[in-house]
C-alpha cells in the first residue's frame, strides 16, 4: 500500500512536531511527583485574570453556539487600543496560528524565509510545512539577533523575515537604531514579521514598538499574544496588526471559527484588568532579580533577559533538565535550539523560584 509520506513534499514528511514544555500532569504520571513546578513555557505564574475567569463562567451556557467568526468585539477593542481601524486586526487562536498562516500564504517551494538562529522553533517549522526553505542567520555574540546580517541574507526568493523581539529563547532584544536600519534595507517583496509575544514585559527605553512603523511603505506584521502577560495560554488567543490587504489574505485562509467564544470573552475582560497586568509585571521583575542574584551566587552564566524567562548555561543541559525533572521542577532543555549547554527557565512565583534554585544547586553540586 502506498505510504501517506509519499503523497506529501519530502521535507514535510521529514518534519518532527513542535516539542512543547512538559505538562505538569505528564510528569506526575511518569514520576509520581506530588506537586511539580512548571517553569517551562513562559506562562503567567499568577494564573489568569479573575475577570477573565468570571467572563468565561458567564459564557458557558452559550457553548452550544458557534463563536463570532469575525471576532468583532475583540478586534474592535484591540483596534481601539492601537488606534487603528478593525480591518488592521487579525484575531487568531494564538499567535502561532498567525505564523503558520503567513507561511501558508507567502511561502511555497522555491521561496524562503529568513530569521536568526536560536529563535522560536515555529519559524522553521511553518516554513518547511509550506514547502519552502529557510536561512538561519548566525546570532551576534551567540545570543542576539543580527538584523544587518538578516538583511544581508534576503534574496529575490525571500518572502518572510521573522524577528522575535524579545527573542525566545534568549530573552534578548534588538533596539531602535538596528530596527530602523533594517527597515530601510528590506526590499518590498519581503513581509517583515515582528513577533512581539513578550512586548509588555520590556522596559528598555530603546525597545522599538513595531506598530509605530506601520507607515504603508513596508509590509509589516506585528504579532502579539494573550498567552503571556495576560495569562490565557490555555485558551489560545493572539492577534496580528497589519495592513488591511494582509489581514484580508489571512482571513481568506484561516478556519472560520478560529477564536473560541470563551477566548473572545476572556480576552475582552483580561484587557480591562490593569491590576492583574501590574501584579504580573511586579512578580516577574522581582523573580528575575532574585534568579539573577542566585545564578551569580552559584556561578551560573545567564543571558540578561527582557522577558519572563531566562537562558542559563548549566553544562549538560539535557542532563540538568532530566535531573531537575526528578526533583519535580520542569524547565526547558535547549539542545533543540542549538544550545546543548543551556536550559531556559520561566520566572515563577517566589516559592517556585526558590524550589528551582534549591533543586538546581543540588543538581549542579553532584
Ligand atoms: C516568540 C514567541 N512567539 C509566539 C509564541 C506563541 O504564542 P501563542 O501561540 O501562545 O500566542 C511564543 C510562545 O511561547 C513565543 O515564545
What does this structure look like?
The protein has 366 residues and is of the alpha/beta class. The chain has 2 domains: 4-47 and 275-365, Aspartate Aminotransferase, domain 1 (Alpha-Beta Complex), CATH 3.90.1150.10; 50-272, Aspartate Aminotransferase, domain 2. 39% of the residues lie in helices and 15% in strands. It has 13 helices and 13 strands. It has helices spanning 10-13, 24-31, 50-59, 72-82, 95-106, 122-129, 147-153, 176-185, 244-253, 261-272, 274-298, 317-326, 350-365; strands spanning 37-38, 89-92, 112-116, 133-137, 158-164, 191-195, 220-225, 238-241, 302-303, 309-313, 329-330, 332-333, 342-346. The strands form 3 sheets. It has a 7-stranded mixed sheet, with helices on both faces. Helix 8 links the parallel strand 5 and strand 6. Helix 7 (147-153) packs parallel to helix 8. The protein starts with 9 loop residues before the first helix and ends with a helix. The mean pLDDT is 97. It binds pyridoxal-5'-phosphate (PLP). Pyridoxal-5'-phosphate binds next to helix 5.
Secondary structure layout:
Blueprint: H1 10-13, H2 24-31, E1 37-38, H3 50-59, H4 72-82, E2 89-92, H5 95-106, E3 112-116, H6 122-129, E4 133-137, H7 147-153, E5 158-164, H8 176-185, E6 191-195, E7 220-225, E8 238-241, H9 244-253, H10 261-272, H11 274-298, E9 302-303, E10 309-313, H12 317-326, E11 329-330, E12 332-333, E13 342-346, H13 350-365
Parallel strand pairs: 1-11, 3-4, 3-5, 5-6, 6-7
Antiparallel strand pairs: 2-8, 7-8, 9-10, 10-13, 12-13
Helix pairs in contact: 3-10, 5-6, 7-8, 11-13
The structure holds pyridoxal-5'-phosphate.
Amino acid at each position: 500500500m502506498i505510504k501517506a509520506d509519499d503523497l506529501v513534499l519530502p521535507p514535510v514528511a521529514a518534519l518532527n512536531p513542535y516539542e512543547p514544555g512538559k505538562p505538569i500532569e505528564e510528569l506526575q504520571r511518569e514520576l509520581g511527583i506530588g506537586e511539580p513546578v512548571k517553569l517551562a513555557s513562559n506562562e503567567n505564574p499568577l494564573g489568569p485574570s479573575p475577570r477573565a475567569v468570571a467572563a468565561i463562567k458567564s459564557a458557558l451556557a452559550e457553548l452550544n453556539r458557534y463563536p463570532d467568526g469575525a471576532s468583532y468585539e475583540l478586534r474592535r477593542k484591540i483596534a481601539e487600543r492601537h488606534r487603528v481601524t478593525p480591518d488592521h486586526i487579525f484575531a487568531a487562536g494564538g499567535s502561532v496560528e498567525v505564523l503558520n498562516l503567513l507561511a501558508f500564504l507567502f511561502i511555497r517551494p522555491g521561496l524562503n524565509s529568513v530569521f536568526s538562529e536560536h529563535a522560536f522553533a515555529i519559524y522553521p517549522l511553518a516554513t518547511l510545512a509550506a514547502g519552502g526553505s529557510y536561512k538561519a542567520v548566525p546570532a551576534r555574540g551567540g545570543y542576539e539577533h543580527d538584523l544587518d546580517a538578516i538583511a544581508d541574507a534576503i534574496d529575490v526568493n525571500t518572502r518572510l523575515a521573522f524577528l522575535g523581539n524579545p527573542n525566545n529563547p534568549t530573552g534578548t532584544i534588538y533596539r531602535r537604531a538596528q530596527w530602523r536600519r533594517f527597515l530601510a534595507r528590506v526590499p518590498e517583496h519581503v513581509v517583515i514579521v515582528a513577533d512581539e509575544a513578550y512586548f509588555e514585559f520590556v522596559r528598555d527605553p530603546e525597545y522599538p514598538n513595531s506598530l509605530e512603523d506601520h507607515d504603508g511603505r513596508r509590509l509589516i506584521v506585528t504579532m502579539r499574544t494573550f498567552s503571556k502577560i495576560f495569562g490565557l495560554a490555555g485558551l489560545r488567543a493572539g492577534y496580528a496588526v497589519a495592513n488591511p490587504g494582509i489581514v484580508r489574505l489571512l482571513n481568506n485562509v484561516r478556519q472560520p471559527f478560529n477564536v473560541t467564544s470563551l477566548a473572545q470573552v476572556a480576552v475582552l475582560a483580561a484587557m480591562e484588568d490593569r491590576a492583574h497586568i501590574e501584579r504580573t509585571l511586579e512578580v516577574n521583575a522581582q523573580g528575575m532579580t532574585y534568579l539573577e542574584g542566585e545564578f551569580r551566587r552559584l556561578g551560573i552564566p545567564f543571558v540578561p533577559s527582557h522577558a519572563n524567562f531566562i537562558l542559563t548555561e548549566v553544562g549538560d543541559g539535557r542532563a540538568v533538565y532530566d535531573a531537575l525533572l526528578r526533583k519535580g521542577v520542569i524547565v526547558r532543555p535547549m539542545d533543540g535550539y542549538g544550545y546543548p549547554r543551556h536550559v531556559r527557565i520561566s520566572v515563577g512565583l517566589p516559592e517556585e523560584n526558590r524550589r528551582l534554585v534549591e533543586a538546581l544547586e543540588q543538581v549542579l553540586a553532584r
